[in-house]
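Team,

Forwarding the record for the chain on the shared tracking sheet. I've put the sequence and predicted structure together so nobody has to dig through attachments.
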Amino acid sequence: MSALALLMENPAAAEHATSDYWPLAFVLLLSTFIGLGVIQRVSRLLHTPLMSLTNAISAIAVVGSILVTGSDYPLVIRILGAIALFASTTNIVSGFLITDRMLKMFKQPPREKPRESAGEQKR
């Protein structure tokens, strides 16, 4: 039985009809390749600011997944929202840990003050 025949038998199912996912898959594939191309060309000095930007984007994903998880959706969608919430939170926390570690690598150790010799003591 075709999808059109099923929709004709049950008009209420027309509201929940699936759309064409090929354009969405194409956009996902294209954005993946563009993102990889951009990230590969980023200098190592710009890694930390770029990581901070991706943390901000993940924060948006956390807000969206909280909305999906807490709303009145079917159980499967709420479980997927909880998985997205866990993944986004993990991404943010690990991103901040990596950023902090990289910033510590660039920190210079504190310089010791030169000691004054016994003959050059201040009066």
